[in-house]
């Protein structure tokens, strides 16, 4: 494991990231890199259960999205736009020497990943979108989240979100406590500003331009992104696979991390084999 907690400055934004590389030095061929982009009110550690299926064959890059985790949004010139998040991704790929890479995003991170694929298709080898909406207006209203945060604070908001993320029996108690704490330590400004940007983003007329392999992973009961909406995205993409996980809500990439990692590893193996 190398490069834990490295810091990258992008347009006066501080992005904290890890590079995990335990691939055998005798493996032939070009370096394979997978870059992960999480969603609202989370941090880069949420992907840990995905890694066992990937680290023997791929270098992994995890980072805290701007405004989340250790990538705090400081100063007055804050840029919450999804276009800025795409620039963060590309700058990070440059920093780790990944001319081309596989991109994985969940929730808002998945929407940003779609935009990145449209913005810089020459950089991205495959794209994996987990519990992802291509039409941001389908998500919960900014006003509801703002009122909730004003009334009960971030700890109360985090508690309110948990049933939307997971079924009652969906994750262990330690996992639930960790996830709850991560949500509660995010700032209200970050949550509201990111959601506002997402609601203003509509890619439904553009995703047909994504001429690269796309894997869609989704739970059957996300209250934020319906399975029907993801099926619509699947139908608009020229080269996509869709896997629906039963008994899974919006927190699928955390509750089903091992299974998602295995699905991604199989997808990448097929891509390398030209399947």
TrEMBL record:
Which PANTHER family does the protein's record reference? HYDROLASE ALPHA_BETA HYDROLASE FOLD FAMILY (PTHR43798:SF27), MONOACYLGLYCEROL LIPASE (PTHR43798)
Q: Which GO terms describe its cellular component?
A: membrane
**Protein name, entry field:** Pimeloyl-ACP methyl ester carboxylesterase
- The signal peptide annotation in the UniProt record is none
SUPFAM superfamilies xrefs: alpha/beta-Hydrolases
Pfam families noted in UniProt: Abhydrolase_1 (PF00561)
Q: Residue limits of the AB hydrolase-1 domain? A: 33-155
